[in-house]
Amino acid sequence: MKGKKVDHSGAGCGIARALDMVGDRWSLLIIRQAFYGQQRFGEFQKSLGLAKNILSTRLKKLVGDGIFRIEEDPASALSHRYILTRAGERLCVILVALWQWGAENCFKDEDFGLVMVDKVNVRPLAKVEIQADDGRILGPGDFRVVDLGAVAR
């Protein structure tokens, strides 16, 4: 039995608020397809095989949350395009990190034959890592959350 969805929009946690906006798998897959260059409802629907009503609901939410904006489609007066906003574009690092985690942890018994590469030199992307402001690579035990007022600037 599924529980009632909890609204975290007032939570003091960036993770909870972000998951309220883009935390379901369909939203992340729609955003992934936008990074692949898709902009039209039909393109998203065809590539994802998602029911039109679910896709419509997700796109409306993503527009409402400022991840996409709607623009007229120059190719069709009856259609429009979904364009990633700056906030949507900044999800790139999340999707790359999720891709890298999935490639490393979800294909143990099978070969994963895909890699994300830099378009300029066609070399694999470096692993996404957490860095301190002095450049040190940090692990999960090397940082914590504190009140902004307690941080010396």
Overview of this protein structure:
By secondary structure, the chain is an alpha+beta fold. The termini are far apart. The protein has helices spanning 14-22, 25-35, 41-48, 52-64, 86-89, 92-105; strands at 68-73, 76-84, 130-131, 137-138. It is built from six helices and four strands. The chain has two domains: 14-89, Arc Repressor Mutant, subunit A (Orthogonal Bundle), CATH 1.10.10; 92-150, no CATH class. The strands form two sheets. The chain has a two-stranded antiparallel ribbon with strand order 1-2. A two-stranded antiparallel ribbon has the order 3-4. The mean pLDDT is 90.
Brief write-up:
The protein has 153 residues and is α+β, with helices and mostly antiparallel strands. It has 6 helices and 4 strands; from the N terminus they run ααααββααββ. It has 2 domains: 14-89, Arc Repressor Mutant, subunit A, CATH 1.10.10; 92-150, no CATH class.
Radius of gyration (CA) equals 18 Å
Q: Give the number of helices.
A: 6
Output mean pLDDT.
90
CATH architecture of the largest domain: Orthogonal Bundle
Poorly predicted ranges: none
Lateral strand order in the biggest sheet: 1-2
Structural class: alpha+beta
- The helix fraction, in percent, is 25-40%
Record field, number of beta strands: 4
Output the keywords.
4 strands, two-stranded antiparallel sheet, 153 residues, alpha+beta, 2 domains, 6 helices, Arc Repressor Mutant, subunit A, single chain
Topology (elements, then pairings):
Elements: H1 14-22, H2 25-35, H3 41-48, H4 52-64, E1 68-73, E2 76-84, H5 86-89, H6 92-105, E3 130-131, E4 137-138
